[in-house]
Amino acid sequence: MKKFFSFVAVVLFALPIFADDIVVVLDSIDFKDPTIVTKQGAASPGSEVLAVKDGVTISINKGQNKGFCLTAFAHSNVTISAEQNIKQLNFEFGIVSGTPKDGGLDPQIAVGANEWSVSDLASQARFAKITITLGEGSGEGTTLDTIGAVDAYTRAQALEVGGTEKVAVLCYIASIKTPYDATYGNVTVWLNDDITSTYGNIQAYRAKCSAEDGAALAEHDRVLVVGNLTHTQNQEGTKDYYEIAQGAQLTRLSGQGIENILLQENVQKVIVDGVVYVVRDGKMFNLQGAQVR
Question: How many other CB atoms are found less than 10 A from the CB of residue 64?
Answer without folding.
Answer: 21
